[in-house]
Design goal:
alpha/beta, Rossmann fold, five-stranded parallel beta sheet, four-stranded parallel beta sheet, 12 helices, binds phosphoric acid mono(formamide)ester, binds norvaline
Length: about 300
């Protein structure tokens, strides 16, 4: 099994076995980094990191991962590129392919990462679009695997907006063999095509949409939430009002499995989608989850463009 030369635009680009290989490689990288024994498999390679939206974790964890692997990150703010003045994504991809060995892009329309991947001759990685955030979910699954030793018999309950993170989680849980339940108000469901795809992977029963956050949380092994207003979304007042009943707080956490963990991709809006008490509480694994972004992305880059062992 090899991921060499591939793109990662959606969690659906991976088969279950490939996901497990990635998680195994991420765990291996994490151990090697702690032991000071990372093999520089990106030596002499350049990775372009393009951002059309703000980022803390994705930007720094990619840059750190590339450097740990002996490569060179080229961090680019799209507004300072010709991209910001109307040069096409395709032309940008063609040109960058002559300089670098991989490209990551954070942008708005998902179609843009697809266009970039079609034009580029090097692997393209989705660093978040309005539709998906697969790199986040690789780190989330790594964190769950560390905590529970695997995925069998586990269920993740996502409370709130059916956004990019929820979409990738639905696919990721289905691929990993975990149950996924989202509790959200009407009109805030994940993308319909993604739900269909997740159900084709994880079964009708394995991927559920409910209205009651208490129903979703009951017995769940992972409680997950994300912001109520994602980057680029308007209508803040309505969204905050509609999503208010879906807050991840101590009362909801009480209903979860006794070993349940709390996850959030961050940045958090404390007091909105999650309370301080829960985010900073003993069940929270959010800081491990954030650290795991770097390990998961190092594994991804190693498998896509790294030199073989
Ligand atoms: N979770 C995440 O992608 O964070 P950033 O927006 O800081 O990259
Ligand atoms: N759903 C959020 C995730 C941020 C990492 C957003 O798109 O803004």
């Amino acid at each position: 099994m090899s991921l060499k030369g591939r793109d990662l635009l959606s969690m659906a680009d991976l088969e279950a076995g490939e996901l497990m290989l990635l998680l195994e490689e991420a765990a291996r990288f994490k151990r090697a980094l702690r032991a000071g024994e990372v093999r520089p498999s990106l030596r002499g390679k350049l990775v372009a990191l393009i951002f059309q939206k703000p980022s803390t974790r994705t930007r720094v964890s990619f840059e750190a991962a590339v450097r740990h692997l002996g490569g060179h990150p080229l961090n680019m703010n799209a507004s300072e590129m010709q991209l910001g003045r109307g040069e096409s994504i395709s032309d940008t991809g063609r040109v960058l392919s002559r300089y670098v060995q991989a490209i990551t892009l954070r942008t708005f329309a998902h179609r843009e990462v697809e266009e970039l991947a079609e034009a580029a001759e090097v692997p393209v990685i989705n660093a978040l679009t309005d539709l998906e955030h697969p790199c986040q979910v690789l780190a989330d699954l790594l964190t769950i695997r560390e905590r529970f030793g695997g995925f069998d018999g586990l269920r993740l309950a996502y409370l709130g907006d059916g956004n990019n993170v929820a979409n990738s989680l639905a696919l990721g849980c289905a691929l990993a063999g975990m149950g996924f339940t989202i509790a959200c108000p009407e009109g805030y469901e994940p993308d319909e095509d993604i739900l269909d795809r997740a159900r084709s992977l994880g079964g009708e029963e394995g991927v559920r949409v409910v209205r009651d956050p208490r129903e979703a949380a009951s017995g769940a092994h992972v409680l997950y939430t994300d912001v109520w207003v994602s980057m680029g979304q308007g209508d803040e007042e309505r969204r905050l009002r509609d999503l208010r009943p879906y807050q991840l707080n101590g009362e909801v956490l009480e209903l979860a499995h006794p070993d349940a963990v709390v996850m959030h991709c961050l940045p958090a809006h404390r007091g909105q989608e999650i309370t301080d008490e829960v985010l900073d509480g003993p069940r929270s694994v959010v800081w491990e989850q954030a650290e795991n972004r770097m390990h998961a992305q190092a594994a991804l880059l190693h498998l896509l463009v790294g030199e073989e062992d």
